[in-house]
Amino acid sequence: MIRTLRLSDVAIQRGGRLLFEGLSLELAAGQACALTGANGAGKTSLLRAVAGLVDLATGQITFGDLDPADARGGGLHFVGHQDGLKPARTAREELAFWTRWFGGTDASAADAAQALALEPLLDLEVRRLSAGQRRRLALVRALAAPRPLWLLDEPLSPLDASWRLRFGEIMQSHLAGGGMILAAVHDPLPIPARSLEIVA
Amino acid sequence: MSRLGVLLGREITLAWGRGGGPLVSVGFYAGVATLLPLAIGPEADRLAGVALGAAWVALALASLLSLERLFERDYEDGALDLLTFAPTPLELTCAAKCLGQWIATGAPLALAAPIAAIGLGAPVHLAPLIFACALIGGLAFAFVGGIGAALSLGARRGGLLTAVIVLPLFVPPVIFGGGALSAFAGGLPWTAGFALMCAYTAAAVALGPIAMAAACRNALS
């Protein structure tokens, strides 16, 4: 289980352009960090680098003593702009598949759907859901298979005020249980979190 | 059900839900088999002479039709990212996707193959071998086709690129399978060609996922 995340002197280059360099961060169990910065600063790229989807130009990302592949394979959730949900499938089918894929159970999926009041929408095709409802489904998917590290890319942007508050409570509960959150944001997170501004 | 079993089920469901993808391939195959007599003439002798080869080539091309979307949709909507966040190696994930493609598209094509070949004038007693060749050759088409689909991820006109990459890789099973069928029809030893096709398929199943996973990782980064 991931208990620490350490980024040491990280630099990321995309499309031949150096986005940033010299970035270091340490996150322990129960802590959250909000990544801020201008559009194109590299917040999403940093999240994808932590997830192992983007190679580092320099630096290192470690998860305590864990092998990075093992840590990423069983220890993190990534909620990004692209949610991987298939428009023609029902929310229930998608939730069932991803819950199993991430190692959860039908019971945990039902509990997660209840936590974000998604049950009435589960039989709708994903294409019938609004942007906010889709985001709630993506968050339910993460809740259904508990993993310690959440990588969230603008998690609150499509949610209305009441669901932002509710998701804030859920994030707080995740941290209280020893989880960690690294989130790219433009609006402040509704939880106590360190802030790290990414500048070129 | 295991993680890969769940993925396999999803792939089959998505393939059938994707505008009836397998039906498009089978329809294309049936179309070629129907149009061929109109193009080269209805004489039974002439048709019977090309029936096996034409049916076999049409099968390879029909298999190509649905390959483009094997990874591309998951790549575009972010699902491919999420599929990497599991203890399952990406190589096995790619293999499950190809297996799903084969079950959803290759198996219906294998069922259609003897019908098309016999319709073109192939002897009826060839039907079991045509089915077996189409089934096993179709597995090779799915796995080498997956390599092309993965390599063309993110490219503009990826379908064209997939075809350019994949068609040369389709040559060995087309030669071996077609050779086995022709030999059997002519009363000659046919097992060598069939065995070579099986060997090629085994190599494709064993090595293809390694290449696919590397190509997917490259596209994601």
Topology:
The complex is a heterodimer of chains A (200) and B (221).
Chain A: E1 4-14, E2 17-28, E3 32-36, H1 43-50, E4 58-62, H2 68-75, E5 76-79, H3 91-101, H4 106-115, H5 131-144, E6 149-153, H6 161-176, E7 180-184, E8 194-197
Parallel strand pairs in A: 3-7, 3-8, 5-6, 6-7
Antiparallel strand pairs in A: 1-2, 1-4
Chain B: H1 3-17, H2 21-40, H3 44-65, H4 69-77, H5 79-83, H6 90-119, H7 127-151, H8 158-185, H9 191-220
Helix pairs in contact in B: 1-6, 2-3, 2-6, 3-6, 3-7, 3-8, 6-7, 6-9, 7-8, 7-9, 8-9
Quick structural gist:
The complex is a heterodimer of chains A (200) and B (221). Chain A has helices at 43-50, 68-75, 91-101, 106-115, 131-144, 161-176, and strands at residues 4-14, 17-28, 32-36, 58-62, 76-79, 149-153, 180-184, 194-197.
Report on the structure:
With 200 residues, chain A is an alpha/beta fold. Chain A has helices spanning 43-50, 68-75, 91-101, 106-115, 131-144, 161-176; strands spanning 4-14, 17-28, 32-36, 58-62, 76-79, 149-153, 180-184, 194-197. Chain A has one domain (4-197): P-loop containing nucleotide triphosphate hydrolases (Rossmann fold). Chain A contains six helices and eight strands; from the N terminus they run βββαβαβαααβαββ. By secondary structure, chain B is mainly alpha-helical. Chain B has one domain (3-220). Chain B has helices at 3-17, 21-40, 44-65, 69-77, 79-83, 90-119, 127-151, 158-185, 191-220. Chain B is elongated and about 55 Å long. Chain A: Residues 5-198 form the ABC transporter domain.
Properties at a glance:
heterodimer; A: 200 residues; Rossmann fold; three-stranded antiparallel beta sheet; 6 helices; B: 221 residues; mainly alpha
Quaternary structure type: heterodimer
Biggest sheet: strand arrangement of chain A: 5-6-7-3-8
* SS content category of chain A: alpha/beta
Largest sheet of chain A: 5 strands, parallel
Q: Which two chains form the greatest contact, residue counts included?
A: A-B, 29 and 24 residues
β-strand percent of chain B reads under 5%
> How would you spell out the order of helices and strands of chain A?
EEEHEHEHHHEHEE
